[in-house]
Write a structure and sequence with these properties.
By secondary structure, this protein is mostly helical. The protein has one domain. The protein contains 8 helices and no strands. Helix 2 packs across helix 4. It is globular. It starts with a helix and ends with a helix. The relative contact order is 0.14.
Length: 235
């Protein structure tokens, strides 16, 4: 959500060629390269090597925030930063089919597992998440910015709306058996498109950024706690 709200210009195929090349070429090649290294050097099975490659290939939109575009409307959006931000928002959702490919390879319960992966995990789930994210973002963008003046959510200046949009788009997509991460990013793009230059976008982005930092700190503290308990138990 934070990455999508940052982007001041539309994410179009005609003007974002570098982003699509990173997603369609660089990330799959990285997954394959990591999988081959895991298979050849670490002695992993084919399925485990694919899982390793699919897990390590995507970049993280929270930890990579220092090299992304600035907050909405601040003008800190050169081509490199725009590309890294857009790619960070999209790649998690596009890595999930390869995670499921690794699981399908490990199970291989029937002869049609690869066809099922193509039709369901790659075709259906990617399509449904983009569709739900698009319509959710457009609908909520209209509700936020274009309702009658007295009912406009943008008048409240409440950044908590961004959390509601995140949970709604993610939850609906998961109920439809899609990948919720990409749906959230597409929903954020739809909200920006509804009223691209409104100052309320900055409020939504600031709230989401604070939540990101809070959850990241909680995860780090939890990891340190698990490490400390494990170290004490060894003694």
């Amino acid at each position: 959500m934070g990455a999508g709200l940052k982007l001041d210009r539309p994410l179009a195929f005609a003007t974002s060629g570098l982003t699509w090349r990173l997603l369609a070429l660089a990330m799959p090649l990285t997954i394959v390269a990591l999988a081959l290294l895991g298979y050849a050097l670490l002695g992993l099975s084919a399925a485990a090597a694919m899982l390793l490659g699919a897990s390590l290939a995507p970049t993280d939109p929270v930890l990579a925030s220092d090299v992304q575009v600035g907050p909405p409307g601040k003008g800190l959006e050169d081509e490199v930063r725009f590309t890294l931000t857009a790619e960070a928002g999209l790649n998690d959702g596009l890595a999930f089919p390869f995670i499921n490919l690794a699981l399908a390879m490990a199970l291989a319960a029937h002869d049609q597992w690869f066809r099922d992966w193509l039709l369901i995990d790659l075709g259906w789930k990617l399509t449904i998440e983009v569709a739900i994210g698009f319509f959710t973002g457009r609908l909520l963008g209209w509700l936020i910015f274009h309702l009658p003046n007295r009912a406009k959510l943008s008048r409240t200046r409440d950044g908590f709306v961004a959390l509601g949009v995140t949970c709604l788009s993610y939850g609906v997509t998961e109920m439809a058996h899609g990948y919720g991460f990409l749906a959230v990013f597409v929903a954020a793009l739809g909200i920006r498109a509804a009223e691209r230059n409104h100052s309320y976008h900055e409020k939504l982005h600031d709230f989401i950024e604070q939540l990101e930092r809070l959850f990241m700190m909680a995860l780090l503290v939890s990891s340190v706690g698990h490490w400390w308990r494990a170290a004490c138990s060894r003694r």
